[in-house]
Amino acid sequence: MCGIVGVTGNPNAVEILLNGLEQLEYRGYDSAGIYVNDQKGDDYLVKEKGRIADLRAEVSADVHGSTGIGHTRWATHGVPSKENAHPHVSNDKRFYLVHNGVIGNFTELKETYLQDVTLVSETDTEVIVQLVAKFAREGLSTKEAFKKVLGLVDESSSYAFLLLDREDPDTLYVAKNKSPLLIGVGDGFNVVCSDALAMLKETHDFIELVDGEIVILKPTSITIEDPAGQVVDRKPFHVDTDPAQAQKGAYPFYMLKEIDEQPGVMRNLIKKYIAEDGSIKIDADLLKAMADSDRIYIVAAGTSYHAGLVGKELFEKLIQVPTEVHVASEFAYNPPLLSAKPFFIFLSQSGETADSRQVLTQVNQAGYPSLTITNVMNSTLSREATYTLLLYAGPEIAVASTKAYTGQIALEAILAKALGVYKQIETIKDFDVAAELTKAANGMQELVDEKGKIEKIAADMLKDTRNAFYIGRTMDYAIVQEAALKLKEVSYIQTEGFASGELKHGTIALIQENTPVVAIITDKKTANHTRSNAQEVKARGANVLYIVSRDLATPTDQIVLPEITPLLSALVAIVPTQLLAYYASIQRGYDVDKPRNLAKSVTVE
Ligand code: F6R
């Protein structure tokens, strides 16, 4: 979603801001802008609808400065347009502001305080900058005016703000609530960003911010104040990520690169979490908290929710721990009746998903223990949960999640093994998680090496279709839900992932001549049933593709999956479906890394 960058005290500010915005492009946006000043009275505001390349084209050679702010906007209030793009400026041209998030009560604020002010945009953000200017005109200092406005914003709101006062041109005023924001520590300058990736060229040392704090950022000082005005001393943390990891290299698209990286993600998780002697390197306190609970509640959204469906199978089948999986946005407003001692697991690639965070806040208020499994160190869900386990998958840039999904499943398997050992469950000895994940890595490699075959299947089956179905039962039902989401989000083919036994109860009416139906069969118990269901749709004209485990395959099945324990079949079965989605999108002429209307990190509810 929206991205924020800022810098103070660097003569290269324009390039730092533009480069930072380019690094955030993957998150999804529809307009962008920068504001810079040179401390000598010259300042520049450049905004453009469309891509950063369009913004760059508007930035003329004389635009220069050492302090500035920049933004990529994903429209919420008001259409994508130059007027609605950030930075927003007060009518007196003194204050400039960029904002991520949503101000719930902006209409009331406008009506109460800004009757006499003409607004030029439709955004909630402009109301905030005009309010700061109004309170400053009434005699408050910039910090006081900013704090006063923060106090007027209601509970439902989320924000990351970066405010600049032209009369104090090298100072940035920073505040956040529910939206991610980091301070980057430079040498003689400082930066701000909503995602560390945006500033890795400038620094690897970042300071996290806590909701409600405000920061006064100057070229050589960072002052963090808590809501009571007390100065907070917080040390930076180091981000190891090599900026090159966030580049496409020779790949045409990030999604393909990230699909290909999955065998490496498996091997890296083994290295990080499993010692030579097979013991698991997971904090004993976390295992104790899980062992003390009577039920696991997995809460997540989208692809991460689908990884949770597989996690349920792992926790229940391997170590007999009752596990429920919930869609975060539903749980938040309609929680189930909880067990006496619940333990919560939040799965989130980004660690910033607002829907999941909403639930975590409730969980924390109730005092329940929680774990976040995420790819992003120091992300909000990671900071706010009791425990964190990281995926170490390297940055996932394509909007459609691939390696984070398989990484989450692999880490759930490692966790289930560790908990089984901790609880001394006899049968867990038979589950050699390192050996299974090694098999998964090798199997994934075999599948990604078969790209040409899958590209051809996509061209034959999916290039011109309007709709498609994935079908499967039990574990395969969990897998087809993710496979269907992947296809629909990047190719715009209307796709459903169905429990194949449910087809006859209504959905089979949609099957016509040539409707693509992909049957995933990795579960021995239900293999014949799914085959029968596939035959039923074939008899009604469907074009059926079988993706089947080697031990269950017949000679005519088109894609045969390498050997792996059935509980981890998702790790290999998902790979051809990711590639089908990728090729279908490319063949239909879309930008597979940036599907329409979607954002990488969904920081609004
Ligand atoms: C789809 C996808 C989304 C995310 C969902 C939750 O490819 O990536 O469905 O899984 O928006 O995001 P995270 O995992 O960051 O919490």
Automatic annotation (TrEMBL):
<dbReference type="InterPro" id="IPR029055">
    <property type="entry name" value="Ntn_hydrolases_N"/>
</dbReference>
<dbReference type="GO" id="GO:0005975">
    <property type="term" value="P:carbohydrate metabolic process"/>
</dbReference>
<feature type="active site" description="For Fru-6P isomerization activity">
    <location>
        <position position="600"/>
    </location>
</feature>
<dbReference type="GO" id="GO:0097367">
    <property type="term" value="F:carbohydrate derivative binding"/>
</dbReference>
<dbReference type="GO" id="GO:0006047">
    <property type="term" value="P:UDP-N-acetylglucosamine metabolic process"/>
</dbReference>
<comment type="subunit">
    <text>Homodimer.</text>
</comment>
<dbReference type="GO" id="GO:0004360">
    <property type="term" value="F:glutamine-fructose-6-phosphate transaminase (isomerizing) activity"/>
</dbReference>
<keyword id="KW-0032">Aminotransferase</keyword>
<feature type="domain" description="Glutamine amidotransferase type-2">
    <location>
        <begin position="2"/>
        <end position="220"/>
    </location>
</feature>
<dbReference type="InterPro" id="IPR035490">
    <property type="entry name" value="GlmS/FrlB_SIS"/>
</dbReference>
<dbReference type="GO" id="GO:0005829">
    <property type="term" value="C:cytosol"/>
</dbReference>
<feature type="active site" description="Nucleophile; for GATase activity">
    <location>
        <position position="2"/>
    </location>
</feature>
<feature type="domain" description="SIS">
    <location>
        <begin position="458"/>
        <end position="595"/>
    </location>
</feature>
<dbReference type="Pfam" id="PF13522">
    <property type="entry name" value="GATase_6"/>
</dbReference>
<dbReference type="GO" id="GO:0006002">
    <property type="term" value="P:fructose 6-phosphate metabolic process"/>
</dbReference>
<feature type="domain" description="SIS">
    <location>
        <begin position="286"/>
        <end position="424"/>
    </location>
</feature>
<keyword id="KW-0808">Transferase</keyword>
<dbReference type="InterPro" id="IPR001347">
    <property type="entry name" value="SIS_dom"/>
</dbReference>
<keyword id="KW-0315">Glutamine amidotransferase</keyword>
<dbReference type="InterPro" id="IPR035466">
    <property type="entry name" value="GlmS/AgaS_SIS"/>
</dbReference>
<dbReference type="InterPro" id="IPR046348">
    <property type="entry name" value="SIS_dom_sf"/>
</dbReference>
<dbReference type="GO" id="GO:0006487">
    <property type="term" value="P:protein N-linked glycosylation"/>
</dbReference>
<dbReference type="InterPro" id="IPR005855">
    <property type="entry name" value="GFAT"/>
</dbReference>
<protein>
    <recommendedName>
        <fullName>Glutamine--fructose-6-phosphate aminotransferase [isomerizing]</fullName>
        <ecNumber>2.6.1.16</ecNumber>
    </recommendedName>
</protein>
<dbReference type="Pfam" id="PF01380">
    <property type="entry name" value="SIS"/>
</dbReference>
<keyword id="KW-0677">Repeat</keyword>
<comment type="function">
    <text>Catalyzes the first step in hexosamine metabolism, converting fructose-6P into glucosamine-6P using glutamine as a nitrogen source.</text>
</comment>
<dbReference type="InterPro" id="IPR047084">
    <property type="entry name" value="GFAT_N"/>
</dbReference>
<dbReference type="InterPro" id="IPR017932">
    <property type="entry name" value="GATase_2_dom"/>
</dbReference>
<keyword id="KW-0963">Cytoplasm</keyword>
